[in-house]
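pls ignore typos typing on phone
adenosine-5'-triphosphate + seq
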Amino acid sequence: GPADPVLASHRLRAGYGAAPVLDDLALSVRPGETVALLGANGAGKSTAMRALSGLLRPVQGSIVLADRAIAGLPAHAIARLGLALVPEGRQVFPELTVVENIRLGARSRRGRIDPAEVEALLDRFPRLRERAQSRAGLLSGGEQQMLAIARGLMARPRILLLDEPSLGLAPAMINTLYAVVADLRDQGITILIVDQMAALALTVADRGYVLEQGRVVTEGSAAELQADKGLEAAYLGAA
Ligand code: ATP
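k done
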């Protein structure tokens, strides 16, 4: 139904070798929510994003995307079902132009590309419009991050996963980027966001989960997590 989560995991276990990185991970994101996944270095945040998006095959557990069981499906199938991952480190195609990169975002839905949709994205990201015909490799790090998000939106996803969008960016660019994320949230886009800068992620999130060694140890509203003195000492202050 309409109140069902867009994305939920249950008892999710995943990792890279014998020892699982994620153990028993349970989380959910409801329609229109922005949810933050927080935790120290190595807690398993990126691993969770990779497992949810099918880049890493779960060892155990379930993942439901819009009422469909997706654990074990390949990443391209999960993308087609409506999950768009903007991975850590951006990963735009440097030799292609900005517009070509954006158009590639439509591939997962195999749809015809509506020029008006590309235009609307360029309206949303004025810095990208200025550089529409530039090779993506010539953009600044922040512009490449915006391009990666624009490409993800071109898929018209049910949910957008943002992995460490602020990584390596200058403070002014981080503010610009988070204004974009807040804007997407305000327009009702469903978002799961990981950021090393937990306090920053909580400024745009409705709720959050704190991971420790691959498990959820705390969850709550953004306001509750912001007010949690223990968390502040452990994760929020250091950023
Ligand atoms: P960070 O912000 O430092 O990336 P994180 O919470 O995202 O932290 P992960 O990147 O998910 O953490 O890493 C969790 C654990 O999995 C770490 O111990 C890490 O060394 C290990 N790990 C991550 N990627 C791989 C990989 N490709 N192969 C083996 N181990 C990995």
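Residues 63 and 69 are 6 Å apart (CA to CA). DSSP finds ten helices and ten strands in the chain. more later
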